[in-house]
Amino acid sequence: MIPLPFCVSITHPKGLMNMNDGKMILDGNVVAASIRESVVGQVKQLVDRGITPTLATILVGDNPASETYVRMKGNACQRLGLRSVRVDLPSHTTTEQLIAEINKLNDDPQIHGILLQHPVPDHIDERAAFEAISIQKDVDGVTTLGFAQNAFGFADFPSCTPAAIMAILEYYNIPIESKHAVVIGRSPILGKPVSAMLLNKNATVTTCHSRTANLADIVRLGDIVVAAVGKPKFVQGSWIKPGAVVLDAGYNAGNVGDVDYEACSVNASAITPVPGGVGPVTIATLLKHTVDAADKFA
Q: Model pTM?
């Protein structure tokens, strides 16, 4: 087994390690199951009070990938005892019409979380639509207010994929404090918020992007590497320093992430697979946020 230079203990709370050829596989399905299990009792208590946690998902247009994601989220709600409400809008929907639909959901006391599936058609002002979502129902962490609260460390509902990454690190007891985290990607719902969350946990954070010079050299400095660039197998094995922990937040055609998994596994001490890594934890986090919203604001 390759030594973990900065992880004295990398076992998760149940003391189990999912190993493959000496590498630790950060199994997102296990983490997601733990999150779901943690809210089962909360859901039951809410239902006993006459409150069924409800997530409304808005899909604009007929993007096949978005349709799949929305269906998966609806099925996940059903399995946990949540209610799922789908709002399907045609591709010619205007920004104003979309915002009107969001406002209806904001005003509906039976709706506790609102998710606008990304991306929307190009003619829609997606940022304006995101901003229309009530902060109390922004369970996906897409508003600028939610972003600001996350940066300050007190968001009720941080962006789900960054929160999923942090949940994986916590579950497997991977140290963050004093480590150098390199985040590849700067989107407002992934790269930037996960950088803030790592910084709030006392990591030293370098956020990279498409215009970063000498990117490979910078990634080689990372004790923790988060890939969120949206390009298949973008991160190469030679970029990963021995013992680094690699979290792949990408999902691309062909069921591949943003990391060249086989190549990066050579040096990484721990790595998330794709699929079965960050993705399942993201969905579980969305459900938890919806349950928490129902508990806090219903």
A: 0.92
